[in-house]
Design goal:
The complex is a heterodimer of chains A (about 100) and B (about 160). Chain A has about 100 residues and is mostly helical. Chain A has three helices and no strands. Chain A has one domain: Helix Hairpins, CATH 1.10.287. Chain A has helices spanning about 5-25, 30-55, 60-90. Chain B folds into two domains: about 1-80, Four Helix Bundle (Hemerythrin (Met), subunit A), CATH 1.20.120; about 125-163, no CATH class. Chain B has six helices and no strands. The chains are: A mainly alpha (about 100), B mainly alpha (about 160). At the A-B interface, helix 1, helix 2 and helix 3 of A face helix 1, helix 2, helix 3, helix 4 and helix 5 of B.
Chain lengths: ~100, ~160
Amino acid sequence: MLTVGLNHFLIVSSILFCLGIFGIVTRKNAVMVLMGIELILNAANINFVAFSRYGNFGYNGQLMALFVIILAAAEAAIALAIVLNIYKTFATVNVDEIDRLKE
Amino acid sequence: MTIYDFMFYLFAALTVVSAFCVVTIRNIVYSAFFLLFTFFGVVGLYVLLAADFIAIVQLVVYVGGILILLLFGVMLTNKITSVQIKSGTFQILPAAIAVGLFAGILTSSLLSTDWKMFDTEIPITTAYSLGNLLMNEYILVFELLGVLLLVALVGAASMARRK
């Protein structure tokens, strides 16, 4: 096999990104959609850290990855609070059955 | 093929196979556990990229925080009277074709780009440099993230409480 370079990490990151998009588009359960979002965020993080290692960016790339991890934590907390409220109102978390704005 | 290449292929295979299982398996709890393996694979990739601090932060925050939160979400939003918690899917074949095309375009465009690569030296530990950057150049971002985390915490707690 080839010696590992920047391209290998970028290919892994793009495969993860496309799998995340596939998860968001095909899944019905809201929590599964959140898992797809986490996959996308991880793919972007791998991209940042790979360019921080192989580019001339110093540690800025790793710091951006740290910020993305922090924001993903905050977003997962809020998204799950919203999903819990949806479950309380609609008794289901299938995204195709949540189609009314008024109760 | 050095040990570095072998470890890279090992962790990359773990990550990609686990991510594929996350988005294809119907059972939600199995999916969450494959997401756990995906995060472990990503931790290995970070260590191979000489980002040791980010690897440990990913382990603590993603595996120890976000995954537990997702499992709580699964357990609290499904009727756990049946043995397996299954999730339905939308049209898989059109989505697979579209995502496959997008993956092809993405991969071909990144393989044909001439990335300017520099051989930076591998640091012993990154925590000191990251802390230095965080406190000097990124101090505003640091403070804003603190405020944002506070707002997210208070917001999520007040939204999800029992009325």
